[in-house]
Design brief:
152 residues, alpha/beta, 8-stranded parallel β-sheet, 6-stranded parallel β-sheet, 2 helices, 14 strands
Length: 152
């Protein structure tokens, strides 16, 4: 659909976007974003960001985290994988393994699990939504529900 140059331009535009899930919000399902994301609510599912992930002190994540950079103040139950820099703030609580290139642990932060540092950068892949499993079926269903054009 896009040539390589156009695809790169679209991806660069997406990485500058910011997303927020506010305090008091609960979400069930996986989150994938090219841009930055801040979460102050609760998420039951995996989070993938090709940019920076910030988990506020009221955040609770029940799932795995994969991001380029992350700053965690809240609680995560699951694996945390950060390709560049992970910062654990004093209120951070991690119950799961950590894999990161570099890490800053501030006094008071707690994690229970193994920690692997200096790992080779993992490529962060975002699902192409139009080609995700089940999308083809959804398109067929929508197409079959559309009224047929009558010829004159």
């Amino acid at each position: 659909m896009f040539n390589k140059h156009e695809k790169k331009a679209v991806e660069e535009q997406l990485t500058t976007s910011s997303n927020t899930i506010g305090k008091g919000t609960s979400l069930v399902g996986d989150i994938e974003t090219f841009g930055n994301i801040r979460i102050d609510g609760k998420v039951k599912g995996n989070i993938t960001s090709k940019s920076k992930l910030v988990l506020g002190d009221s955040s609770f994540i029940d799932g795995n985290v994969l991001a380029q950079n992350a700053e965690i103040e809240g609680e995560v139950t699951g694996r945390v994988e950060v390709t560049e820099l992970l910062i654990l703030k004093p209120s951070a609580r991690i119950k799961g393994d950590i894999i990161t290139n570099k890490m800053v642990v501030e006094a008071g932060a707690v994690f229970n699990g193994s920690c692997q540092m200096g790992a080779d950068a993992k490529e962060i892949k975002i699902t192409d939504f139009d080609h995700a499993p089940g999308r083809e079926e959804a398109r067929k269903v929508r197409k079959s529900e559309e009224p047929e054009a009558k010829s004159a």
